[in-house]
């Protein structure tokens, strides 16, 4: 065992990168849940995004096109969920599970010919000057565009929910859909848009896994990241800022356990690999005492009967 | 009262199986307070929803300011100067007062300006309100102020108010009426929906009466007696319940120092509730909605548990027992919400009969349900309480409000309770069913049961209760014999010490 | 013209039975389109999946497989359905399945080579207890801390998979296995082998257990007060509290039962068809059982039928894979679609579709 092989600067830098997929998926799901919809299909949308992005990036040679397609793929899949829950008024939990099962199948079907291929590299955006700062430079300023996009998205969602009218309407719909309907807001439309946004974010998160983190395509490669993202929203008490904290926590845990594995700690690899899931459970236990922040209409079916 | 502001002509709206509005016509003048009077289910809500753009009429026309008016959505109605204060469903508990008001406006100013305007308008109309408070923490009266302010900030020409006084104390009603008079003096018309006849006589210039979706007449309330209006509203004369003098027995239910936190974030905690209820007695508990009624029922029924000694049934401490255990000892309850609380909407009446009848009616042997006996019990309820339904296999949600309420009350009454707790027993029920339910409660008391009736309908409580108390912010007032109570005293009891100051505004 | 949904006054009885059938038919159509898009003859593919295993040339081989594959699905789905009915969402059956297999097989491996009549019974008990324990984790955490059982039970699947890998590579590795991963093969250990009860029938102890579970669940839900409480809690939680149902007891019962049944399914699988504890002996029955539970309308008899149907798609899928070159993933998509369409047509049970010929009504927009 050689713990000195773990470089703290690299560890922090890879923490930021490792937290990006989960951050993207979680911030999307946060918007969905603030609109009163519980979409348990994050895992399915992520993995669909992962293969869509991967396939397009490989075929076009452009990671950028890959990410765009991943967002579209995730959003398209999420619209199936929207159709089930918003039009056919199906149970949110069951529909979300269906989406995940379907997404897992669909992705392995789409990914048939892509196993073992290397995707085109996603360029790092070394910000001049800033990236040369010791420690801070490599940790904060030498990542690829998606890392910054994810952070910008968190800020944008935070600002949108807090300061804009659109954010207010979204919160109103999630808080009490009957009241929002009585005031003339289009509950279903708002929710469908939120669901699609969540799908796009999950898709981007999945593509970040297959194009940057791993980077290659394997079946079931999201390995529960989508579910952890769902847990993160609970952890964050439905607040955008706290999603960032949570994502870093999970990024940290997964990077640390990978580093420990690499350093040859005398614990079987499998037990180290369990740690992100166990930490998720632990975090859920700690955070679940405070239920009051959950949106009032979360997971409830809306039907304008009058 | 000058030229007509809104004219309605031949409005018709049908739903499958029911015509909600059938060829309704009337008109509202500028500065007029126009009452829309009718029983539950007479079609009042559908009519105002059409005016507010929430429902589209099948046929008929409306004219506003002399121009054709057909709002496609509430937004269009608001743009034309039509605003509505809802009875339920239109506030967001977790949002602030200012955010709630902004949601009701087309083009709200920035939050800072809005807060200033809210303060200004609320001063003008005597409706004090802090824009930064979270709505869920407000009292029912304050919540209504939020709704009214939301409308007033848009300079409405027509203000629709749906049962506005059902959540107010008598003193608060006075404040509301003076606000409304100020508005009409400025030329605003008010469409005032209610079934409280005295209040319509005090406030309204004209009244249109709906029965089974039809306009059965317009009258001048000041020149019409309440009895005449009731006759028009109901169609037939309703016989008021008869109340036999009855001897009071021993103390059946004794509550001492009952304090409980509410399980819901915006609920009301119960604070040191104490009273004793004797066999054969009916105590009425009044109070504005949201002052701890649901919590009191839950604490007594056993859904919320309390220190063992806080509640005693015939001297036995039962505070820690679950509802089924309390039922076995003779304490039964019927909560306010019929669908989802007192009954499971998608289950059949037979299954719903089992819901509370399992123990007392002996419907279980060694854990197995005796379905034939359960169905028999359901049939007895249906027969005894005249529940209109195809049969005991019908789902609870298929019944009308009145019929389901008769079933729910009947289910408890037939189990011969020693103590019965009911919350809002006639809420949203037509007059005939309401009279039947009140009579059933009186008969039950005459047979020696002790009854605690929680209700927001003061007339109901005065009609059936021997003694009266009021809930205010989770505290229970002193309980006094109803015979000695005047409206002023009742208002003070309902308002508690806190709201008495408001009453002097 | 536009369509609008209108709530029925009460659930339509005929749609309760018709909707799964309709869902299967629509899935066949959509699946056919999918297979066509993959360049396969859709009619041939569908008939290979649904006809071949039952009535084809080698049906004598495939029919018993129906029981072998259907049994774990039914056993797990029965447990899940109890919870789903009560609004308690155990979606971690795959984890409970794995842990049950590990504890059950662990007993066998610990006693090897003891040849005792009670060994298999002990294994079943251990398997059930293992699954039960794994299912109790989300239950106890939910009761004590209010954690969401969906997320916890699912996280435990990933933990169980790692545990399985650790066991297959570590303590349970076959000491005579030349260093290959995986345990001793229980098929070669008669006292611990979940063999066919009648040769060539596919009938093993797991099938018997599944049938018993169906019967018990049917009686429980229809006639027993506990089953009533489960249904009541799922449909109207507030009414259940009012009736006096103890929610804690239901959570423990539902998660415990579904865990134990999944654990037993795992044990029957690992000691029978699979034979050994290996990294990938689990093939996702725990997740497919979710589809089975819904397809069977959370009704025990429905689940029995749905489990056999789903087993059919597994077997037919394998045939189509070898005969037509249909990718295995296509079957997974097909199964996913089935759940989608089922949830979609389910709306017809409680709502009716109405054609409107008039101008759109904004308040009713779908």
What can you see in these coordinates?
The complex is a heterotrimer of chains A (306), B (505) and C (366). Chain A has helices spanning 8-34, 42-60, 63-87, 92-110, 136-140, 145-163, 165-175, 177-182, 187-213, 225-235, 240-263, 269-287; strands at 124-126, 142-144. With 306 residues, chain A is an all-alpha fold. Chain A has one domain: ABC transporter involved in vitamin B12 uptake, BtuC (Orthogonal Bundle). Chain A is globular and about 60 Å long. Chain B folds into two domains: 4-234, 3-Layer(aba) Sandwich (Rossmann fold), CATH 3.40.50; 251-503, P-loop containing nucleotide triphosphate hydrolases (Rossmann fold), CATH 3.40.50. Chain B is built from 16 helices and 23 strands. Chain B has helices at 44-51, 74-79, 97-103, 111-124, 140-152, 170-185, 197-203, 226-234, 293-301, 323-329, 349-357, 371-384, 401-413, 431-446, 458-464, 487-503; strands at 4-15, 18-29, 33-37, 59-64, 67-68, 82-85, 158-162, 189-194, 206-211, 214-219, 251-260, 270-278, 282-286, 311-313, 316-317, 331-334, 364-365, 368-369, 419-423, 450-454, 467-472, 475-476, 480-481. Residues 497-505 of chain B have low confidence and may be disordered. In chain C, 69% of the residues lie in helices and 3% in strands. Chain C has helices at 13-37, 42-50, 52-55, 59-86, 93-111, 119-145, 149-169, 205-223, 225-235, 237-243, 247-270, 285-295, 300-324, 328-350; strands at residues 2-7, 351-356. Chain C has a two-stranded antiparallel sheet with strand order 1-2. In chain C, α8 (205-223) packs antiparallel against α13 (300-324) and α12 crosses α13. The two termini of chain C are 13 Å apart. Chains in contact: A-B, A-C, B-C. The interface between A and C is large, with 55 and 53 residues. Chain C: InterPro entries: ABC_transp_permease. Chain C: This is Nucleoside ABC transporter membrane protein.
Structural class of chain B: alpha/beta
Tell me the fraction of residues in β-strands of chain C, as a range: under 5%
The CATH superfamily of the largest domain in chain B is P-loop containing nucleotide triphosphate hydrolases
Q: What count of structural domains of chain C? A: 1
Poorly predicted spans of chain C = 358-366
Distance between the termini of chain B: 28 Å
Per CATH, the class of chain C reads: Mainly Alpha
Largest sheet of chain C: 2 strands, antiparallel
> What percentage of residues of chain C falls in helices of 4 or more residues?
55-70%
Q: Work out the radius of gyration of chain C.
A: 22 Å
Please estimate the helix content of chain B. 25-40%
Rg of chain B computed from alpha carbons, rounded to a whole number of angstroms: 24 Å
Intertermini distance of chain C: 13 Å
- What is the CATH fold-level name of chain C? ABC transporter involved in vitamin B12 uptake, BtuC
Please give the CATH architecture of the largest domain in chain B. 3-Layer(aba) Sandwich
Form type of chain B = globular
């Amino acid at each position: 065992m050689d713990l000195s092989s773990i470089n703290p600067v690299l560890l922090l830098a890879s923490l930021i990168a490792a937290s990006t997929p989960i951050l993207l998926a979680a911030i999307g799901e946060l918007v969905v849940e603030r609109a009163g919809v519980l979409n348990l299909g994050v895992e399915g949308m992520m993995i669909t995004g992962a293969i869509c992005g991967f396939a397009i990036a490989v075929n076009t040679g452009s990671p950028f096109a890959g990410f765009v397609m991943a967002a579209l793929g995730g959003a398209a899949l999420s619209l199936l969920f929207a159709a089930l829950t918003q039009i056919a008024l199906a149970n949110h939990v069951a529909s979300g599970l269906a989406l995940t099962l379907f997404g897992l199948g669909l992705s392995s079907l789409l990914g048939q010919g892509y196993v073992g291929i290397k995707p085109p590299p996603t360029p790092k955006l070394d910000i001049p000057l800033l990236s040369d700062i010791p420690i801070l430079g490599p940790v904060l300023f030498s990542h690829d565009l998606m890392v910054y996009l994810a952070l910008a998205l968190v800020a944008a969602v935070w600002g949108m929910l807090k300061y804009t009218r659109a954010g207010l309407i979204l919160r109103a719909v999630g808080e009490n859909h009957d009241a929002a309907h009585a005031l003339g807001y289009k509950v279903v439309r708002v929710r469908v848009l939120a669901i699609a946004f969540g799908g796009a974010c999950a898709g981007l998160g999945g593509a970040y896994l297959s194009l940057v983190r791993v980077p290659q395509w394997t079946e079931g490669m999201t390995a529960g990241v989508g579910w952890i993202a769902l847990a993160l929203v609970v952890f964050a008490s439905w607040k955008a800022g706290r999603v960032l904290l949570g994502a870093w926590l999970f990024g940290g845990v997964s990077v640390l356990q990978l580093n420990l594995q690499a350093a040859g700690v005398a614990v079987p690899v499998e037990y180290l690999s369990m740690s992100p899931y166990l930490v998720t459970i632990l975090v859920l236990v700690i955070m679940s005492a405070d239920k009051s922040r959950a949106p009032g209409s979360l997971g409830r079916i809306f039907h304008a009967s009058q | 009262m000058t030229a007509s502001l809104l004219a309605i002509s031949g409005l018709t709206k049908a739903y499958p199986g029911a015509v909600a509005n059938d060829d309704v016509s009337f008109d509202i003048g500028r500065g007029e307070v126009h009452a829309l009077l009718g029983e539950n289910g007479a079609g009042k809500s559908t009519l105002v929803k059409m005016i507010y753009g929430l429902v589209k009429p099948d046929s008929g026309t409306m004219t506003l300011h002399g121009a054709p008016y057909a709002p496609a959505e509430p937004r269009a109605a608001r743009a034309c100067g039509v605003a509505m204060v809802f009875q339920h469903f239109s506030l967001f508990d977790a949002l602030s007062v200012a955010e709630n008001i902004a949601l009701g406006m087309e083009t709200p100013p920035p939050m800072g300006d809005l807060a200033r305007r809210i303060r200004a308008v609320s001063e003008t109309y005597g409706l004090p309100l802090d824009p930064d408070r979270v709505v869920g923490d407000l009292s029912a009266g304050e919540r209504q102020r939020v709704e009214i302010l939301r409308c007033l900030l848009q300079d409405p020409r027509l203000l629709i108010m749906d049962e506005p006084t059902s959540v107010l104390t008598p003193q608060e009603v006075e404040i509301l009426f003076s606000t409304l008079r100020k508005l009409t003096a400025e030329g605003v018309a008010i469409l005032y929906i209610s079934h409280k006849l005295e209040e319509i006589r005090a406030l309204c210039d004209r009244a249109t009466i709906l029965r089974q979706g039809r306009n059965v007449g317009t009258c001048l309330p000041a020149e019409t007696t309440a009895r005449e209006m009731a006759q028009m509203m109901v169609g037939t004369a309703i016989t008021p319940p008869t109340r036999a003098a009855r001897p009071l027995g021993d103390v059946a239910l004794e509550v001492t120092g009952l304090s409980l936190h509410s399980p819901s974030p915006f609920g009301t905690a119960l604070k040191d509730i104490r009273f004793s209820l004797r066999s054969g007695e009916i105590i009425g508990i009044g109070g504005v909605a949201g002052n701890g009624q649901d919590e009191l029922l839950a604490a007594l029924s056993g859904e919320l548990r309390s220190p063992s000694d806080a509640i005693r049934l015939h001297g036995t401490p039962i505070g820690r027992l679950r509802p089924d255990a309390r039922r076995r000892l003779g304490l039964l309850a019927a909560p306010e919400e019929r669908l989802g609380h007192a009954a499971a909407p998608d289950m059949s009446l037979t299954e719903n009969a089992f819901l509370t009848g399992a123990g007392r009616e002996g419907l279980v042997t060694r854990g197995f349900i005796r379905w034939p006996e359960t169905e028999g019990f359901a049939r007895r309820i249906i027969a005894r309480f005249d529940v209109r339904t195809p049969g005991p296999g019908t789902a609870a949600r298929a019944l009308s409000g009145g019929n389901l309420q008769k079933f729910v009350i009947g289910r408890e009454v037939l189990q011969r309770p020693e103590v019965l707790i009911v919350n809002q027993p006639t809420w949203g029920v037509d007059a005939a069913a309401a009279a039947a339910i009140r009579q059933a409660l009186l008969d039950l008391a005459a047979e020696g049961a002790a009854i605690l009736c929680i209700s927001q309908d003061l007339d109901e409580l005065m009609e059936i209760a021997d003694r009266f108390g009021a809930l205010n912010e989770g505290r229970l007032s002193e309980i006094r014999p109803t015979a000695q109570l005047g409206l002023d005293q009742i208002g003070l009891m309902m308002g508690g010490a806190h709201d008495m100051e408001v009453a002097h505004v | 013209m536009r369509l609008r949904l209108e709530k029925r006054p009460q659930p339509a009885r005929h749609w309760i039975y018709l909707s799964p059938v309709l869902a299967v038919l629509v899935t066949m159509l959509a699946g056919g389109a999918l297979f066509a898009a993959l360049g396969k003859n859709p009619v041939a593919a569908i008939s290979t999946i649904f006809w071949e295993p039952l009535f084809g040339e080698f049906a004598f081989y495939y029919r018993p497989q129906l029981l072998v594959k259907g049994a774990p699905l039914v056993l797990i789905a029965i447990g899940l359905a109890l919870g789903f009915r009560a609004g308690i969402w155990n979606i971690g059956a795959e984890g409970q399945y794995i842990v049950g297999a590990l504890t059950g097989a662990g007993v066998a491996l610990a006693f090897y080579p003891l040849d005792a009549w009670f060994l298999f019974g002990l294994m079943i008990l251990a398997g059930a207890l293992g699954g039960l324990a794994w299912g109790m984790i989300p239950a106890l955490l939910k009761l004590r801390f209010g954690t969401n059982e969906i997320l916890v039970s699912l996280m435990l699947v990933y933990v169980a998979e790692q545990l399985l890998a650790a066991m297959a590579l570590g303590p349970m590795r076959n000491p005579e296995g030349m260093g290959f991963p995986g345990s001793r093969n229980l098929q070669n250990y008669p006292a611990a082998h979940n063999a066919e009860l009648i040769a060539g029938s596919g009938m093993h102890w797991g099938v018997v257990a599944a049938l018993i579970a169906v019967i018990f669940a049917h009686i429980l839900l229809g006639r027993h007060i506990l089953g009533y409480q489960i249904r009541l809690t799922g449909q109207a939680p507030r009414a259940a509290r009012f009736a006096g149902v103890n929610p804690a007891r239901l959570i423990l019962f539902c998660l415990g039962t579904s865990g134990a049944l999944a654990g037993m399914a795992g044990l029957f699988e690992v000691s029978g068809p699979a034979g050994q504890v290996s990294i990938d002996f689990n093939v996702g029955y725990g997740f497919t059982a979710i589809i089975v539970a819904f397809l069977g309308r959370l009704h025990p008899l429905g689940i029995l039928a749905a489990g056999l149907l789903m087993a059919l798609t597994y077997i037919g899928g394998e045939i189509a894979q070898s005969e037509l070159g249909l990718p295995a993933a296509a079957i997974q998509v097909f199964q996913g679609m089935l759940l989608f369409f089922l949830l979609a047509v389910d709306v017809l049970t409680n709502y009716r579709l109405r054609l409107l010929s008039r101008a759109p009504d904004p308040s009713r927009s779908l």
